Fold:
Amino acid sequence: MTLSLLPERPRAANRSGIRVRAGLAAGVALLGFVLVAPAFARGAPDGFADLVVKVKPAVVNISTTQKAETPRAENMPQMPDLPEDSPFREFLEKFFQNRPGNPGAPGQGQRPERKVNALGSGFIIDPAGYVVTNNHVIARATDIKVKMTDGSEHTAKLIGRDEKTDLALLKIDNGSKNLPYVTWGDSDKAREGDWILAVGNPFGLGGTVTAGIISARGRDLSSGPYDDYMQIDAPINRGNSGGPSFNMDGQVIGVNTAIFSPTGGSVGIGFAVPANMAKAVIDELRNTGRIDRGWLGVQIQPVTPDVASALGLKEPKGALVAGLTDNSPAGKAGIKQGDVILSFNGAKINELRDLTRVVAATRKDSKAQVEVWRQGKPQTLAVTIAAMPKADQVAAAPDAAGKAEPGKGAETGIDQLGLKLAPASAKLRSRFGLKDEVKGAVIVGIDANTPAAERGIQLGDVIVGIGQERVTSVPDVVSKVKRAADEKQKAVLLLIDRKGNERYVPVPLSKI
Structure:
């Protein structure tokens, strides 16, 4: 299965019939029982025609001309291996040598550019001619055309775009005419099961309307740090990108962006950027032409059940601070490595992307109240958010640890963890490439049959912290692990330094 963005090059469309399944009315008899719809549930609409008449004029087709390089010769079919005396050899040699894209062909010293056309969708949000679409629809475009439902075509200029949320804002010249437009709805109020109407330009057909429901909320597609997609089952296809999904009041509650499909066509799983996120991005693009996101300057890890147990948290929620960037707003505010961020300006942080999104949406120089869990109790710190540096992320998760291998030779064993530790001697620093400033306990042996090995701990890793406290020696580690065992903790949280990169690894305590 693949996740596909939805622009489409013009091509002949294969038209097929659409089956519409009728919804259930008041109830269904099942095995002698009657399941009755709750009194507050809205029934299926009689039709969408009135809604279509209202919103369709503001939905536009977008066509772009884009630059693309001619494929390299090594990526193209190669000449077959023919005998020297074959009558076809000379002919084929000349053909393959002179084909476009071959560096040896006439005029082909460099890879030439060629122009390709692509299609997408968009919608007008202001009678002055502001058009919302996806960034991937207009990326690398040298020419952008917007076609209205009345057949008129306009040249559009790019106001701004945001790769991280895949949104873009265009402007067309409306002359003295007020253009039809639609308004944003409140996507936070949209519920799973609500009806939605999608309008767009699938496969270049233009003005196509489909209906369905919201299938799920808060989908993370691993496409970026701000993933919070709305999943819809209204059929959308290639070319629907940038088109709107409407609620039954005719308000835009999502910008259709991607599909999940094994074939490249609709299988009823589409994804839209929620309107509340899209509106904030589009407003900033309109005002400044760019997106300036807030920056906290922390590296974070998820709070797993083992982490929560080790730190005395009742629930595995929040964002564990694995590290801080130098001179970051978090560091200046007193946030420390090992803290668990529980809330930001009153917004609960249940998982990593919750923190990423709320920080990014906070304007630079604004104040925020950050609640952290430290040493078994919550604390609230005031932080002044900065603008995100271009090379940084709001909050980044460090790379996962690699697979461990058992080792030989050790000075101190910790049976509860299945590890053997040694001080950071000159010999071990040379063996494992450890920096002189690294202090802690070097892991020189790992029992392959313990959770420590399963959690990816490696030989040469240095334990530099236990829980929310730093350690500088093997006795420090031993005493803190013993204390955790005496307190009946189920797991201990190790802060591991691996070649200068630090991350937390929760390790269950074995019974001894």
Notes: The first strand starts at residue 2 and ends at 5.
